[in-house]
Amino acid sequence: METWDAIRSRRNVRAFADRPIAGEDLDRVLQAAWRTPSSSNQQRWDFVVCTDREQLQALSKVWRYAGHVATSAATVCLVAPRSENEHERASIHYDLGQATMSIMLAAADLGIGSGHASVRDQELAQRLLGLPEDRFCAWLLALGYPADRPLAPISRPARRPFDSVVHRGRW
Ligand SMILES: Cc1cc2nc3c(=O)[nH]c(=O)nc-3n(C[C@H](O)[C@H](O)[C@H](O)COP(=O)(O)O)c2cc1C
Q: What distance in Å separates the CA atoms of residue 66 and residue 14, rounded to the nearest whole number?
């Protein structure tokens, strides 16, 4: 897929077909995460990829709107260091946001859908993923082939009007 088509085709997918993702495709998505730029190249992240159905079902319980994780073919768990420093926390989340988008676009390029999920129950995520004490699971990214329709460029995305968002030169 062209980059522009991947950007326009990505949408949150929350219902997945019962079809696995080929190992090489999943690796490519993970490589996209690994290549993501980060503040001072600190790479304050680890990616735990889960494909076991029972583990995915258990992971889907970390937040009331994480149900789609249960039926995903794979879910990438974005793990980061805990920090007491507000500036550092913001910087880590900026980097994680970039990694998220890298994953989503690399997936869309392969026709693979993706869907974010927040993580509210940190204790459960910590236990299911076997994370060290000084790490937390920031986000989950569910991956899989869409159950409804294949990814295709969206001509009218649900967004605020372009001209009210883009300011040229000054506000
Ligand atoms: C930081 C963040 C957290 C999100 N958390 C959830 C979530 O817990 N569950 C969910 O179903 N969608 C979640 N979403 C998806 C958004 O609702 C979705 O991206 C937004 O409505 C735009 O839709 P689109 O991705 O299809 O363009 C999250 C998105 C972001 C950026």
A: 9
Cα angle 84, 128, 126 (rounded to 5 degrees) comes to: 10
Tell me the C-alpha distance between 10 and 20, whole Å.
19
What distance in angstroms lies between residue 87's CA and the mean position of ligand 1's atoms?
24
CA dist., res. 56 & res. 69, Å (int): 6
Give the pLDDT band of residue 1 (cuts 50, 70, 90): confident
Ligand 1 centroid–CA 12 distance in Å is 7
8 C-beta closer than 6 A to ligand 1: no
Asked if residue 33 has its Cβ within 6 Å of ligand 1, the reply is no
Q: Which structure tokens are listed for 67? A: 């149900």
- The answer to pTM > 0.90 is yes
Q: Which of 10, 12, 114, 120 to mutate to test the pocket of ligand 1 (most atoms within 8 A of CB)?
A: 12
d(CA 38, CA 34): 10
Gap between the Cα atoms of 148 and 132, Å rounded:
38
Q: Is 5 exposed, middle or buried (0-12, 13-18, 19+ CB in 10 A)?
A: middle
